[in-house]
Amino acid sequence: MPELRKDPISSRWVIIATERAMRPTDFKSEPQLIRGGFCPFCEGNEDKTPPEIMSYRERGTQANSKGWRVRVVPNKFPALRIEGKLNKHGEGIYDSMHGIGAHEVIVESPKHIASLTELEDKQVEEILWTYRDRLIDLKKDRRFNYGLLFKNVGTAAGATLEHSHSQLIVTPIVPISVMHEMNGCEEFYKYRGRCLFCDMVQQELATGTRIVYDGEMFVAFAPYASRFPFEVWILSKVHASHFENLQKLEAEELAHVLRNVLLKLEASLEFPPYNYIIHTTPFTLGEIEHYHWHIEIIPRLTRVAGFEWGSGFYINTVSPENAAEFLRETDIEKKAGSARS
């Protein structure tokens, strides 16, 4: 029997339709081949990208040259541009403003790698610190309200270059999906006096059936109302509203947890295309009690079609309980070493 489940954060309903499902092993993706050829993100091609905004590099090396470990550059084809004024205005019932913001690319390694999992935990930690540094810098600009960090892997997930990289788009308005989450959490806080995400963490840990990875400071689990097969969220076990307030010990463990979850997804689903996004609190708000930053990892194994677009429902053919069990039992030591061929 299909089951309707309600997401307590956004009030969005999903349909868990396991009768329509294949087994988890049937979701294995086509291998993503390393194509080779020219890549503007590889070390030695620094002059083929816009000048770098920042980088972590070896001592004594110069900007826009070899010697970097993580490098941030403006997107060559930005969704929003950093120069100019917002010029907010109306036209009858319609509102508009200039497309002002920032669009940056975080190149995660000087080597041509296709996956963040090919790096060591310490290298992933530096990527997280880069995310943090860029948010801290850009939130100083009073024109901007929100910074969305995200990663596209594979053509089905929107990636146009295979060299492992993330992106940051900073906007003058708060994205509607974040507003829905924040509004739901604020209503819960007004009624219960607690953070809904914190309660969710405690309930998932107590239940255990949807846990994918349980660390000392972070937990990864398949959300109760998962929109997509093998969707995984990562949350801090203690309340934290802003990602950019991440501390060193937290960054160390988060790097390990994130890499571990991605290894499990790659090993069990044979390198699926995926997106991950980081939802955090808007720049203009200080520390708040009702919202909790988190990472959402979304494998792109199914397509959103007419019913989903027309109704706002999602149809998920793998229950989060089964997905979590499958990922928990995945032996990354045995499978992760298998290279793309």
UniProtKB/TrEMBL annotation:
Any idea of its EC number? 2.7.7.12
What top-level branch of life does the organism fall under? Answer: Bacteria
Q: Which UniProt keywords apply?
A: Carbohydrate metabolism, Metal-binding, Nucleotidyltransferase, Transferase, Zinc
According to the entry, every stretch annotated as the Galactose-1-phosphate uridyl transferase N-terminal domain falls at 66-175
Q: Which residues form the Galactose-1-phosphate uridyl transferase C-terminal domain?
A: 186-304
Which cofactor does the UniProt annotation name? Zn(2+)
Q: Which residues form the active site?
A: H165 (tele-ump-histidine intermediate)
Task: Look at the named UniProt entry and state the broad enzyme category this protein falls under.
Answer: transferase
One GO biological-process annotation of the entry reads: galactose metabolic process
Q: Where is the signal peptide?
A: none
Q: Which Pfam families match?
A: GalP_UDP_tr_C, GalP_UDP_transf
Q: Does the keyword Hydrolase apply?
A: no
GO MF annotations, alphabetized: UDP-glucose:hexose-1-phosphate uridylyltransferase activity; zinc ion binding
What the record says about family reads: Belongs to the galactose-1-phosphate uridylyltransferase type 1 family.
PANTHER family on file: ADP-GLUCOSE PHOSPHORYLASE, UDP-GLUCOSE--HEXOSE-1-PHOSPHATE URIDYLYLTRANSFERASE
* The name this protein goes by in its record: Galactose-1-phosphate uridylyltransferase
